[in-house]
């Protein structure tokens, strides 16, 4: 199975599309040796969110690394951020801009289609199916797309990112009350910075599935890894930092869910 879906009792689905680390054995020889350490993973997100089961959330986790397939890119591989550096449906570069593959070993058009059908489509079928289940049961659904990234990656963005990057596709993927509630929760505790619809406005998952008029709201959180781990190899989980970061993220998610329920009189 290329993903794991846990179904919960609350009207919220948490997707972590870049938390997978596996590169299938038959693909490994095509990559440069450095790629096998999958450095651009959204490290430790399931551990950081270890309270989701108690919250009653549904959770969708992939098995495979984003180096195999980027589940947060559109199937036609159109750039998400025109004019900026973008990763692809089947990425060919590290976040540093260096090549992921050995010379002349990049995936062909046929290989990209194979991976899309084998890895991308099942994840999205599961995601769409779970949102439909939640909406049928509750009358609405909230999708929280969870991500993390190093705080400084010059190939992708200038300078240092804010700690918490909230994206609602410039307001198109979630009701404004939800975005406001998330931002207020981010600001409440202090000690970290946040922005709404800054450099990261939400990828394909947020933009495609978030449809407020259809009673599905989607929020992406791109958080800096410096909040909860070491950003240098071996990318260790940092428990003292996490003691601060975990309650902030939980407050943001619970605020989003409460605001969503309030919209529907729940």
Task: Describe the structure in your own words.
This protein is an alpha/beta fold and 266 residues long. It has one domain (3-263): Zn-dependent exopeptidases (Aminopeptidase, 3-Layer(aba) Sandwich), CATH 3.40.630. The chain is 31% helix and 14% strand. It has 6 helices and 7 strands, in the order ββααβαββαβαβα. It has helices at residues 45-48, 52-55, 109-138, 176-188, 204-209, 239-263, and strands at residues 3-6, 12-15, 58-62, 141-149, 164-167, 194-196, 216-224. It has a 7-stranded mixed beta sheet, sandwiched between helices.
Shape: globular
Report, as a whole number of angstroms, the end-to-end distance. Answer: 36 Å
Q: Which sequence of SSEs, written as H and E, runs from N to C?
A: EEHHEHEEHEHEH
Secondary-structure arrangement, i.e. CATH architecture: 3-Layer(aba) Sandwich
State the share of residues found in helices, binned by percent: 25-40%
Mean pLDDT: 95
Largest sheet: 7 strands, mixed
The poorly predicted ranges are none
Q: What is the number of independent domains?
A: 1
Residue fraction in strands: 5-15%
Number of beta strands: 7
What structural category do the secondary elements indicate? alpha/beta
Number of helices: 6
Give, in spatial order, the strands making up the sheet with the most strands. 1-3-2-4-7-5-6
Radius of gyration (Å) = 18 Å
CATH superfamily: Zn-dependent exopeptidases
Which fold name fills CATH's third level, the topology? Aminopeptidase
């Amino acid at each position: 199975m290329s993903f794991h879906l846990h179904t919960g009792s609350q009207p919220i689905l948490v997707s972590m599309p870049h938390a997978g680390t596996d590169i299938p054995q038959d693909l490994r020889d095509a990559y440069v040796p450095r790629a096998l350490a999958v450095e651009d993973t959204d490290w430790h997100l399931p551990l950081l969110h270890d309270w989701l089961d108690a919250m009653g959330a549904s959770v969708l986790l992939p098995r495979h690394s984003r180096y195999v397939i980027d589940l947060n890119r559109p199937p036609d591989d159109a750039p998400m951020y025109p004019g900026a550096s973008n990763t692809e449906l089947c990425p060919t570069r590290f976040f540093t801009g260096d090549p992921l593959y050995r010379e002349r070993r990049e995936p062909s058009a046929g290989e990209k289609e194979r991976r899309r059908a084998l890895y991308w489509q099942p994840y999205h079928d599961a995601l769409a199916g779970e949102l439909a289940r939640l909406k049928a049961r509750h009358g609405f659904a909230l999708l929280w797309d969870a991500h993390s990234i190093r705080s400084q990656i010059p190939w992708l963005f200038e300078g240092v990112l804010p700690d918490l990057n909230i994206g609602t596709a410039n307001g198109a993927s979630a009701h404004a009350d939800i975005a406001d509630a998330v931002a207020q929760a981010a600001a409440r505790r202090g000690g970290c910075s946040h922005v709404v619809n800054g450099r990261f406005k939400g990828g394909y998952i947020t933009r495609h599935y978030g449809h407020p008029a259809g009673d599905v709201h989607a929020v992406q959180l791109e958080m800096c890894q410096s909040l909860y781990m070491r950003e240098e190899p071996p990318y260790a989980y940092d428990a003292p930092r996490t003691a601060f970061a975990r309650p902030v993220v939980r407050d943001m998610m619970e605020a989003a869910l409460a605001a969503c329920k309030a919209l529907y009189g729940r």
